[in-house]
């Protein structure tokens, strides 16, 4: 599975609709300080369901919406869409047969978030379920930020175990068991 395209509009500094193509397995993003490189990572975490504003470097969830600049007025909503190439079948279940999977999130000023999977409205839960066990996800190890290496090295055993279980692909089954047991 590979992330091939990121589409942003109204998200942080990406006020105008912007499409980023990631044509190969390695893509570098370069630019001066404050140009929006980290905002792209925030966007990826955000679509996959991150719900803690602090993890997106903001105070409230609507802080991801473009808040205006000296030249531009604020906008009313933010959207980000990720397109994954799933031709290797990493994503299993209902979406296994789709060669391309699109995941989208929209938030408006009233704080309402909506999620879409291949264009159809879905729950946040459907998105997190989709990525569970793939190593992707809002807090998974596939996004390594500054400071995270030492965080993993210094992690408590329980936290380390969580990462190992995700890598081994068993977190999905544990989550389902927990769900069944709580019914
Ligand atoms: P560095 O090289 O210093 O890490 P960077 O390229 O990672 O920089 P970012 O942190 O991605 O930069 O971008 C910061 C910029 O995004 C700032 O100019 C900030 O004003 C802008 N920004 C963040 N949130 C919003 C928002 N909601 N509305 C408008 N602009 C925003
Ligand atoms: Mg940065």
Characterize the structure shown.
- The protein has 183 residues and is an alpha+beta fold.
- Helices cover 26% and strands 21% of the residues.
- The chain contains five helices and six strands; from the N terminus they run ββαββββαααα.
- It has a six-stranded antiparallel β-sheet.
- A hairpin with an 8-residue loop joins strand 1 (2-9) and strand 2 (18-21).
- The two termini are 33 Å apart.
- Bound molecules: adenosine-5'-triphosphate and magnesium ion.
- The site of magnesium ion (MG) has 2 residues, from helix 1.
- What is the helical fraction, as a range of percent? 25-40%
Strand and helix order = EEHEEEEHHHH
Number of DSSP helices?
Answer: 5
Percentage beta strand: 15-25%
**Mean of residue pLDDT values:** 92
Query: What ligand species are in this complex?
Result: adenosine-5'-triphosphate, magnesium ion
Largest sheet: number of strands, sense, barrel closure: 6 strands, antiparallel
Roughly how many Å is the radius of gyration? 17 Å
Structural class: alpha+beta
List low-pLDDT spans: none
Shape, principal axes of CA atoms: globular
SSE topology:
Elements: E1 2-9, E2 18-21, H1 37-47, E3 77-85, E4 100-108, E5 113-117, E6 120-122, H2 124-131, H3 148-153, H4 157-168, H5 171-181
Bound molecules: adenosine-5'-triphosphate (ATP) and magnesium ion.
Summarize the model shown.
The protein is of the alpha+beta class and 183 residues long. It is built from five helices and six strands; from the N terminus they run E-E-H-E-E-E-E-H-H-H-H.
